Amino acid sequence: MNKGRVRALLPIGVFLVLYLGLGIIFEYVIKIPMGFYNIPIVVTFLVGLLVACLQNRELSFDKKLEVMGRGVGDKNIITMLLIFLEAGIFVGVVGRSSAESVAYFMLSVISPRYAVAVLFTVACFVSLAMGTSVGTITLITPIAVAVSGASGFDLALCVATVVGGSMFGDNLSFISDTTIAACNGQGCQMKDKFRENFFIALPAALVSLVIILVMSFNTEIAGEISKDYNLIQIIPYVLVLIGGIIGINVFIVLMIGIVSGSVIMLATGTVAATDLLANMGSGASGMFETIVVTILVASICALIREFGGFDALLYGIKKIFRGKKGGQIGMGALVGVLDIATANNTVAIVMANPIAKEIAKEYGISPRKSASILDTFSCFFQALIPYGAQMLVAISAVAELGGQISAFDIIPKLFYPYLLFISSLVFIFFIPSKEKK
User: What's this model's pTM, rounded to 2 decimal places?
Assistant: First the structure.
């Protein structure tokens, strides 16, 4: 077995030390709000790339550029970049106002007794349709605060329910950054990964809903909340969701969403034609950092692979984790550690992708299974880290409305992420996936 070169992994180590170290200083020493997100992640990855270029003296710089070019020019990387752009345009076109409409519609027709269950269901649906947990939390957390104030439900429970539900769609949505990154990085169809993930996520969501309902029955209800809503704007989201599930090509699905969204927004007078074009541009530009990070990670990983870093990592994983089940746990642990270090589950998946692909080949793990593991484990860790965007955005949204809550109030009540982790382990150890020969 090729032991590779452990020192080839130095660029990843340099990035993690810079990003995690500066993030801790900004967040907890200098106490800058959302300190981790003030660290220029592109710059830290560039430093990592510089370190990678300084290694492996056997190759000239021109040869290293060729290696990086092959890494960036991989079909899966190009596909991922194009999907990122199209997904950004879709979100820019349809906007995010329809999320509030779904929430207030359900709250208006369902008893206040079930308001927290409604919050969880809405967060699941909206994140599944929008493909973003942070966007869902931004939109639904103010509603959660209003529900808590009007009904008497515990604020931490309401906010944690929204955070947990948002991770449902983050894990499953066809336009989620994590889904796009995991599927294209592992070389599997989105519909296959969705089917693999769905039967892991659904039991976790249903049990979470039962727990929330049980807790709801033990709460004294003081009032209710209502607001106007407009459901026609959710049609593009539903079309994208249905198209993805039945297996239509993702580029066509997103184009259907963009066209239908444009027609609805213009027909209802929600936006002017010139503003619609501007929204398309801002939606696409919102993906630029993710695209640049993907390119830099692909370049770094290509150089690390060439220098024997992946061989060293695979050798270490094989020494610790035995058999196919052990390989899956090793893959989950890998993306979990990277997520804890970067506080960004998409970046963690992009970084883990090439290594996970090698693990999958070595242990005979199907692409759909490896993509599922990367996404579920990264979502579990991302939901729980106190300095993650999801947690910080939720706390900030509560503070803007005059409330006060901490990450440590929310974490114990994140039922869905805990149950998703348990469900993932059950499927790894006891329920083998039905994989095509």
Answer: 0.74
